[in-house]
Each structure stands twice: as structure tokens, then as C-alpha cells.
Amino acid sequence: MGDWFQTIVDTEATPGEAEGLAANILDWLIADGFVSAERTDCVLGADAGHAPGAGYGEAVEEPDPGLAGVWSNGLHVTVGRTVFDAGQGEPSAVTCPHCAVQMPLVDERWSPIEEAWALFADAVGSWADGDDEPVACPSCGRAAPVHTWLWADEYFAFGHLGFTFWNWPTLRPEFVADFSRRLGGHRTVLLAGKL
């Protein structure tokens, strides 16, 4: 069965501003009743998170009356340099930020294309450790840091701030757009995945 998650990633927050932005967003989510103020054991992979609040239904397309009975039903906030991913599966392609040529990463059977992945594997793996390894485009030859490439299927997002909602129904587009506005208009990426 597994656990479903949705992560809103701020791809433009700097290391210096991520903690303050996280506090501002959390204040808004608590004040509007989307999540509870108390931190509890309600998220995967972290010590504590924020359970859904009385107004969480306003953030999702179709509220789930059974969500309260699910152990992993909270919000986890990640502050720090992180490669966020969608969990299972693989991205289908990646697009060069210079020439906009799209490079397939899987074949017609959805098997990884090893030579394509080889261009990105080290750079993706080392980004969270502080490296900003450039990747050269096979089409135009220009190099760009791995975090600037555009990943199909919203599979990867690179950033210093992310908000993961565990097992919530699909977030409303308006709610996700409000995040971006409240983050100072920063570009956000919504990853959805399953463990």
C-alpha cells in the first residue's frame, strides 16, 4: 500500500533565509487552521511534525474523513540543502536550461537509459553535500549546474526549504500558489510521490 506524500519545494530560498521563511509559512498554516501548532509523531523520516488542523480541508481538493486515523498524516518542514525527490519510479526526461533540448532518461519500456543517467548521477548525488557540479548538455555542449536543469514529471527539486504533507489528498492549486506568494514569489515545485 505505502505512504503518499506531496512536497512543496522553494527552489529559490537561500540558506540564510530558509529558516525565516519556514517559520513564516508555519505561522500562516497554524493561524489558518491547516495544521496544528503542537508537534507530534505524525510524519515519516523525522522526529515530529504538525498534524492536520481543523481547516485542512480548505487546502485539499477533496477532504478525506479517514485522514485523522492515519498515523503518518502530518506536515514535515525541511530546512537545509536537500535533493527532494518523488520516491518511486524515475523521471522520464531532463531539459537543458540553455538550449531547451529534452534528453530522455528512460526508454519505451520505462527502463533507465544508463548512459543518459551517467551524465547526472554524481551531480544529483552530491548536490545535498554542497557541490554544484555542472553537467554538460550533449546537444549544445554548454554546462549548467544540475539544479538548473528542468526535470520532467517534477521528479527532482533542489532547494533549502521544503514542506512535505504525508497522506493528504491532492493539494488545491490555489493553496500551492498561495505558498509561492507567501515565499516572496519564489519559484516552487510540487513533487508528489509514494514510498
Protein model, in words:
By secondary structure, this protein is of the alpha+beta class. The chain folds into two domains: 4-84 and 157-194, TATA-Binding Protein (2-Layer Sandwich), CATH 3.30.310; 90-154, no CATH class. Helix content is 21%, strand content 31%. The mean pLDDT is 92.
Q: Would you spell out the secondary-structure blueprint of this structure?
A:
Layout: E1 4-10, H1 15-31, E2 35-40, E3 49-52, E4 75-85, E5 93-95, E6 102-104, H2 114-127, E7 134-136, E8 143-145, E9 150-151, E10 156-166, H3 173-182, E11 188-194
Antiparallel strand pairs: 1-10, 1-11, 2-3, 4-10, 5-6, 5-9, 7-8
In brief:
Helix content is 21%, strand content 31%.
Please give the CATH class of the largest domain: Alpha Beta
**CATH topology title of the largest domain:** TATA-Binding Protein
Question: What's the story with the biggest beta sheet?
Answer: 4 strands, antiparallel
Give the spatial strand order of the biggest sheet. Answer: 4-10-1-11
Proportion of residues in helical segments: 10-25%
Mean pLDDT value: 92
Query: Rg from C-alpha positions?
Result: 18 Å
Coarse structural class:
alpha+beta
- The count of strands amounts to 11
Q: How many structural domains are formed by the residues? A: 2
Strand content: 25-35%
Q: Count of helical segments?
A: 3
N/C terminus separation: 9 Å
CATH architecture of the largest domain: 2-Layer Sandwich
Gross morphology is globular
Q: Which residue ranges are poorly predicted, with pLDDT under 50 across at least 5 consecutive positions?
A: none
The topology string of helices and strands comes to EHEEEEEHEEEEHE
